[in-house]
Amino acid sequence: MDNDAQKPKPYKRATEQRVFVNRSLRLEKIKFFGFDMDYTLAEYKSPQMEILAFEMTLEKLTKVGYPKDILNFKYDPIFPVRGLWFDYLYGNLLKVDGFGSILMGMHGLRFLKTQEIEELYPNKFIQLSESRIFVLNTLFNLPETHLIAQLIDYFDKHADFKQNAEKTGIRGGEMMMSYKSIFQDLRNAVDWVHMNSAMKRTIMDDLEKYVKKDARLPQMLKGMRDSGRKTFLLTNSDYEYTNAVMTYLLGAEWTSFFNLNIVDARKPTFFAEGTTFREVDPETGALKLGSNTGPLKEGVIYSGGSCEAFRKMVKARGKDVLYVGDHIFGDVLRSKKTRGWRTFLIVPELDQELSVWTERRPLFEELGGLDNQLADIYKNLDASATDKPEIHSVLQSIRKICHEMDQEYGVLGSLFRSGSRTTFFASQVMRYADIYASTCLNLVHYPNFYFFRAPMQLMPHESTVDHASVLKTEKAEKFRRQDSIGHQVRGWSKKTATENEFFPEEEEEDVSNESSDIDELHSARRGSQKSPSADVENNVCDTDVVSMPPAQVDRDHLVRQTSD
After folding, report:
1. Which of 57, 255, 380, 464 is deepest in the core (most CB within 10 A)?
2. Which residues constitute the catalytic centre (predicted)?
3. 517 marked ligand binding residue
């Protein structure tokens, strides 16, 4: 019998049904389940959605002076990947790791060579500066990622244009265009397409073509409410579009699946200073006069609002809320860092990523073998060695395997890694998403009291050293001759009659009778010190891992005001 078949399977659910865990989370502790709409409850069909945005953006660019030739551009779904950085200065698409080290670069449709990257970016490193970098981080950014590459390639190769000496743009006669201005034109066109009703009307006229419908959605929402939890919809989309999509997914009584319904939320502003809550007239879609100051009511649709007002009205502490969304910054980063909500990130690309991970296993095993081969070459060499071993062939093989692995994911490689290095996007997922999956509907495969327990995170000194290894050091020998540290600590605890009972995997018990007073105290303290928006500005980048500049996070919500 095959050895793999004899091994017990550590995971009880099919891979495509799983939810992955960065930080332990107990569903029984969650009192409020919040959902974004676009790419969360409503999963758009790909590449149909991207092609629609791509073609409408091209049309808009030709209306602001771009040549009609660009209408021949075609969207290719194997080209773009999320999480790339666009360098305004040199017009390059860059894949970077969580610290800003460049893993790959592309100018137009041409990959940058190692020498070119080193010339433009000393030490193959770049800082995330809002004046220099735009992060193409959302699913809505996929069409423009491909478009900017095609536009730059078009102008660089056009007979009437030539790249300037500084490599920052192109010149044709008296006309000069920087790569930054080309990208700004593209961004303006993309924003116009998403804010313009034409794209939304096209989707609403043929929802079956653009939106996936899944019978598990009402099952999941009903199960949450039947278990005594509260659910709410929090979307940036306007009422008309939200109503059309949710009616298609859940029926005319879609609001009954949620305790609260909030449209036009203007995330991430919602998590900072926010706006005022106003009721929406479901008959006309118009806002009712005045702002809502009383408790939020079931069956009523609200527009705008703020997280602070939401917290007070529903009496929800941060850890009571699990918010599910697809936007790493607008949904996950802001809700976690400024409000302490638990977070569930939706990453539709996970299906493809896992397919490559499982079906192309030999490539990953070959890369591991090459790493071992490289280690063996140096195994018996110490500080006295003078003859440098030949490792060029091994490094070439590693480079070749990494390239083959990247190609299995697409032209620009994996969303999460480049060879053995993880990407900027991956670092943000690990840092800010408590749990993540390809779809929120995977929750139907777990009971509502499930304990999502994070796997042990191993550091290199743990993952590369076998438990059976014997340390041959003077200090290790001393430890072996005496009682174990653990035995000594247990003796110390008995003498002092104190022991650490804190268990980090277990969340603190709910103290409902104190929660309101504690929340009011915290709110008063914040009010006396600084505004919530100031907290946002100070907290977004307080990490050694590269994080988004606040200004760009705020810009990201512009598109999502109307299309989430």
Report:
1. 57
2. 36, 38
3. no
DSSP 85: E
Does the annotation flag 153 for ligand binding?
no
Rounded CA separation 61/367 (Å): 44
Q: Rounded to a whole number, what is the distance in angstroms from the first to the last CA of the chain?
A: 51
Q: How far apart are CA 1 and CA 423, in angstroms?
A: 39
Active site residue 517: no
Between residues 6 and 398, which one has the greater pLDDT?
Answer: 398
- Residue 558 in this model has a pLDDT that exceeds 50: no
Contact 226, 189 (CB under 8 A): no
Q: Are strands 175-178 and 169-172 parallel, antiparallel or unpaired?
A: antiparallel
Which burial class, exposed, middle or buried, applies to 491 when counting CB atoms under 10 A from its CB (0-12, 13-18, 19+)? exposed
Q: Select which of 2, 4, 38, 87 is catalytic.
A: 38
Closest CA to 278 of 291, 260, 266: 291
The Cα angle at residue 160 between residues 155 and 163, in degrees rounded to 5: 50
Could you check whether the bond before residue 143 is cis, i.e. omega within 30 degrees of 0? no
d(CA 106, CA 86): 10
Question: Do you find a cis peptide bond into 47, omega within 30 degrees of 0?
Answer: yes
SS3 content of the chain, % helix, strand, coil (to 5): 50, 15, 40
Task: Give tens-digit pLDDT for 422-470.
Answer: 999 999 999 999 999 999 999 999 999 999 999 988 898 888 888 777 7
Q: Residue 242's closest CA among 234, 132, 467?
A: 234
Cα–Cα distance measured from residue 525 to residue 162, given in angstroms and rounded to the nearest whole number: 59
- Global model pTM greater than 0.70: yes
Residue 220: how many other CB atoms lie within 10 Å: 21
In angstroms, how far is CA 53 from the centroid of its own chain? 21
> Is 226 among the catalytic positions?
no
User: What is the 8-class DSSP label of residue 211?
Assistant: B
Q: Is there a contact between 169 and 181 (Cβ–Cβ < 8 Å)?
A: yes
The answer to whether 387 is a known ligand-binding residue is: no
- Tokens standing for residue 484: 């174990």
